[in-house]
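Support case: FE2/S2 (inorganic) cluster complex. Customer-provided input:
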Amino acid sequence: MNAMTEGPESRAPSPDELFVVCAMDEIAPGAARAFDLAEADGLGGAKPFRIVVVRDGEGRYFGYRNACPHQGVWLNIGAGGFFDETGALLKCGRHGATFAVETGRCVSGACEGAQLESVAVEALDGDLCISGVALVEEEPPLRHDDDMDETMEITIHPG
Ligand code: FES
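Agent response - structure generated as follows:
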């Protein structure tokens, strides 16, 4: 489960805190993983914060808000995956816009030139952490079904 790395739960969430999302090796090279998190809404509550973390073939990690700049839908809506047929670009499943993994910039499609919103990802003691967002832990956690895996992993270069 997710866990704040510091700070008592009674304190207001801060964007300066690191939030562990998973172990670094839980995302394979060339794979992407979605996380349904919650961020402070500024009114004492929380609102959904959906992100995707991508690990490229060189082992670098990139985080983006899981929202297409065109109409704001999840990138993996529809086909359920994050990559185009080449495995080299992120892709919106709704209308097919494609995005560079390293920059989040749309390189083709309805929102060409637009930018996925970056999410800061840091490595800490073997864990992947999100920073720069006032994340909160909700009770119950933001899972659709405890029996279902909340993640989606797609291999860029299968086999
Ligand atoms: S919503 Fe993503 S390309 Fe239209």
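DSSP finds no helices and eleven strands in the chain.

Case will auto-close in a few days if no follow-up is received.
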